[in-house]
Amino acid sequence: MKKLILIILCLFLTIGCNKKDDIVNDNNEENKQEVTKVEDTYIDDNPIKVGLYMDGKLINEYNTTIVDGEDIASFDVYFTDIEDVGSSNTKNNFNKYYKMYDNIDNYKIGFYISFNTEEKKMESVILNPSSMYDLYYIYNYLYDDIHQPDGAWYSHVEEKDVTDNTVYSSIKLYAGGETSKITSPITLMVFTYNGDDDFDSEGYYRGVSSHTLIINNK
């Protein structure tokens, strides 16, 4: 009789454990279903068309010979993508196309540069002068051509010069050193943005307002 009671008790405990496991599993499944996925609803309504220009002409590809310690090239930023703006005056051209848009005062200009070297890929998102020497081989100098007296000489923007009104209307690339280790063309992209949501979780631009050119070292 005692044996029978022990057998029944064991069966009861086993069934009880299984039921408990089932309840835990059920709860886990319910919890999984209750976790709602946070979807990225980013939509870019940026109206600005932007391009990189040299002597008034839109540049998609630029061929040059890169020499250490010398300028590579300078490019102007205009809020248009037409092939030829008909003038090489950076200040006038920038203002002309800027004024064709309404309510864009909160948009800023940024850049992205990338290239491969013998060791690794080099890349930088450039939003201000603090990134000037990020790429070691290639320096980038940002210029505000807009807030300058006509005919005056001026230099690139440094961190101490930046204000809320600073406009990065042109960029110059300079060969810092050891550029023979660069093994690919240089990619230069200009873009406009008005907030952190225009960048993905890794800090790369993901908006619709951009223009990219390729610089080939011949």
How far apart the termini lie comes to 98 Å
Helix content: 10-25%
Major sheet: order of its strands? Answer: 2-1-4-8-7
Strand tally is: 10
Class per helix and strand makeup: alpha+beta
The major β-sheet equals: 5 strands, antiparallel
Please report the number of helical segments: 2
Q: Catalogue the unreliable spans.
A: 2-13
> Mean of residue pLDDT?
89
Calculate Rg over CA atoms.
29 Å
H/E topology pattern? HEEEEHEEEEEE
Q: Indicate the proportion of strand residues.
A: 25-35%
Structure description:
The chain has 218 residues and is of the alpha+beta class. It is 19% helix and 28% strand. The strands form two sheets. It has a five-stranded antiparallel beta sheet with strand order 2-1-4-8-7, covered by helices on one side. The protein has a five-stranded mixed beta sheet with strand order 3-10-9-5-6, with no helix packed on it. β1 and β2 (57-58) form a beta hairpin. The protein starts with a helix and ends with a strand. The model is unreliable at 2-13 (pLDDT under 50).
